[in-house]
Amino acid sequence: MFTPKPPPPHFHVRPDDPLADLARGAAGRQPRAIEAFVMATGLSVVRVVRRILGSHCSEVDDTVQEATFAVLEALPGFRGECTVLHFVCRVATLTAMNARRRAQIRVQVALSTDDVESHASEGPSPMSSAIESRRREACRALLDELPPAQAEVLALHCVLGYTIEEISSATGSPPNTVRGRLVTAKTALRERLAADEDLNETMRGVS
To answer: Mean pLDDT throughout 133-137?
Structure first.
């Protein structure tokens, strides 16, 4: 499918990035590197898509495949502003949000209890897990209605748990811009949920 070649001149990855070698090879369209890169990042792509769409959504498998191809297409333009994994998660997030809009998904879906990164022995308490699940449900329901830039920030921060600094690095936007978009998105979220006092109480812990 791809013709092997060196990475584009503008491609850059941090030398200490654990995915540096695989990303460099995949950006150069080296088949073995592409296969290894997809294997190394696959679980993260699945996790992102499931959290944006909801783990029981029928679109998950197709969106994971779409996100994987989107990552490979975007990789040659990677400039090392963030880690490779953050880059992968951002592309997967945008792909999943586009899939939501196309399918006009409006139903809030609870997160699966078998999340690919969960660890039962050291995981959060049932109450904190329920609270986080409700927060993510509310965020997912609002993603379709927000402007794309605000929706992306809200998803990265509230659904995937990225910090302001991590979002800034991944998106190439100044921290103050990220913070402003997040404040605007949260304001819209609170306004939309104003009629639900219980859920508003839950969302007050989002920072």
So the answer is: 68
Q: Are 156 and 72 in contact (CB under 8 A)?
A: no
- Cβ-based neighbour number of residue 83 at 10 Å: 20
Q: Render pLDDT for 41-88 as a digit per residue (tens, 0 to 9).
A: 999 999 999 988 887 788 899 999 999 999 999 999 998 889 999 999
pLDDT at 197: 67
**Residue 8: C-alpha distances to residues 42, 71, 86, 104, 197 (Å):** 23, 15, 20, 37, 52
According to the model, what pLDDT value does residue 83 have? 93
CATH class in words for 120-201: mainly alpha
Residues of the chain with CATH 1.10.10.10: 120-201
Evaluate whether 159 touches 97 at the Cβ level (below 8 Å).
no
The DSSP symbol for 106 reads -
**Predicted confidence band at 35 (pLDDT cuts at 50, 70, 90)?**
very high
Neighbour tally for 187: CB within 10 Å: 11
Tokens of 182: 């997040």
How are the residues of the chain apportioned to helix, strand and coil, as percentages rounded to the nearest 5?
Answer: 65, 0, 35
The architecture (CATH level 2) of 9-106 comes to: Orthogonal Bundle (1.10)
Q: Half-sphere exposure of 21 toward its Cβ, with a 13 Å CA cutoff?
A: 3
Instruction: State the span(s) of the chain assigned CATH 1.10.1740.10.
Output: 9-106
H helices, E strands: number in the chain: 9, 0
